[in-house]
Amino acid sequence: MTRIVSLRRAKPLARGAPGAHVTTDQISAFLTLAQEKRFVSAARRLGMSQSGLSRQVQSLERELGTRLLVRTPRGVVL
User: Fold this and answer.
1) Rounded to an integer, what is the distance from CA 15 to the centroid of its chain?
2) What's the chain look like in SS3?
């Protein structure tokens, strides 16, 4: 079964606070989520809550000024 995902160009996000920076925790959270493709399994692997993982990834997206993932009911798409 082929699944079609719309890859519309994401709208830029507002930039983080002045002086904010990307942390290794944010990078680790993103990389684990990219590998696992699901918040539940990525959060479990990192030993954190789903909401904590979501906050880390959202913070990274804000800092970089762009969406890194497409969130779907079945997980994430890069």
Assistant:
1) 16
2) CCCCCCCCCCCCCCCCCCCCCCCHHHHHHHHHHHHHCCHHHHHHHHCCCHHHHHHHHHHHHHHHCCCCCEEECCEEEC
Closest CA to 6 of 71, 68, 75: 71
User: What's the CA gap between 12 and 43, in Å, rounded?
Assistant: 26
Task: Show the tokens assigned to 59.
Answer: 């913070």
Give the tens place of pLDDT for each residue, 16-71.
555 568 999 999 999 999 999 999 999 999 999 999 999 999 999 999 999 999 99
